[in-house]
Amino acid sequence: MSDSGAGVTGVDGMRRAGANQYDLGSFNEAVIIETIRLAGIISRTEISRRTGLTQQSVSRILRILLQQGLLVEEAQERAERLGKPRTPVRLRSNAAHAVGIHIDPELLTVAVVDLDGKIVRRETVDLAEDLEAGKLVDLTAATVTAALSISQVDLDSMLGVGVAVPGPIDADGSFLALPLQPAWRGLKIRQLLQERLNHPVLVEKDGTAAAIGERWIGRSARARDFAYLYLGTGVGSGLFLNGAIYRGGTSNAGEFGQVAALRVGEWDPENGPRLVPECNPTASLPVIAADFGYVETDANATDEASRYKAVCHAAAAGDEAAVQAVRQVARVIGQGAVGLVDLLDIDLLVLGGPAFGKEISEIFLAEIGRAVNGHPLARETREVVVEESMLQKDAAAVGAASTIFHDAFTPRVSGSSQARRLPK
Fold it and tell me: Which of 66-80, 100-114, 280-294 is the least confident region?
């Protein structure tokens, strides 16, 4: 972590800004913002064509959004047919910011992110195995405060704080039974951080946050339904269905390990699904590689994360035992992915997360692509595209920040069961 010496600013010491800064007055305003976001840069005429709104309505709404500073006009272009100048518009990247927090049992990542998804400031802190819940809150709040101070972003542009965590969680943003960190069970992370930081806070499962980030950053390339396979300490998934993020009734949709266990027929003594080792790749890959005859030669590979990276590097270098181990992990995850494809009838899978490194990406994409196109019942009706995430290793942190933008600017039907609004 970068050392700035900044402490935690209390509720009375930090101006709460941003939650209502862009209080969109109508559904049409949100539709126009979404249209601009997907296009990147777009003319008024094209906005009218894509939204079905009259040019008069588009011009009126754009005038408001330009006055608010959310949009900026580009240099004028000459229209081809009529010779009239046109001035396209785009979102102003520094008009809004959000903080994205990824809390992993081993690592805390905090990112200050602008409206285009660019990381303005990033801080990381290694977490001790025996870190108490209260100290986790203190450390997280202090890291966010330091990141905001160093980034020097205008606090008036801060919309909120998104937090990505391993599941399961409950609806008010508290931890439930975390398998790798039982000491945090019951921690009201959303409420406590909101009190410390004096900004609205949203909590999402890490896979869900990554999917939201992929949708936000991916623009038109991710404008259709997809499942995001998130490889971290475990393997989870985030689901975009019917054009909206799907959280489920308790915000715990996407428990991919259960699906994979059912697909490969792993059962515990009580006849329930037993999570397969391959769905915790950072822990299992070095063990599986050793079973294939892999010998670790890196003296610095002394912990789980470094041993995992060493096997990935060895696979990229052509070590056969390491390659076989990566393929085994990818094949099991591929079987779980078949279950998702069959259940949801989707044609796009996105792979990402901190454990999805460049060294193993080719093997994973090939093995999972082969599985989801060879085994689903509806394989004759469509090809399932398997692609690498646009978010890379900070998928959860950038995704967490994107949940704030998604909440603030994405059009939604009132009363939708999947709608979520920033707490006031």
Answer: 66-80
For the segment 120-148, what is each residue's pLDDT rounded down to a tens digit? 999 999 998 888 989 999 999 999 999 99
| Cα 160 from Cα 219, distance rounded (Å) | 21
Q: What three-state secondary structure class fits 349?
A: strand
Q: Which single residue is written with the structure tokens 């909101």?
A: 194
Label residue 415 left, alpha or beta by phi (over 0 means left) and psi (-120 to 50 means alpha). left
State the pLDDT confidence band at 13, using cuts at 50, 70 and 90. very low
- Measured between its terminal Cα atoms, the distance across the chain in Å is 30
Highest mean pLDDT among 10-24, 71-85, 173-187, 306-320: 306-320
Query: In the chain, helix, strand, coil percent, each to 5?
Result: 45, 20, 40
Helix, strand, or coil here: 52? coil
Q: How many CA atoms lie within 13 A of 77 on its CB side?
A: 13
Say if residues 94 and 115 touch (Cβ distance below 8 Å). Answer: yes
For the chain, how many helices (H) and strands (E)?
A: 12, 14
Integer Cα distance of 356 and 339 in angstroms: 20
For residue 250, name the pLDDT band (cuts at 50, 70, 90). confident
By residue count, the chain amounts to 424
**pTM here?**
0.85
Pairing of strands 226-231, 348-352: parallel
Residue 401: what are its φ and ψ, rounded to 5°?
A: -65, -40
Maximum Cα–Cα distance for the chain, whole Å? 75
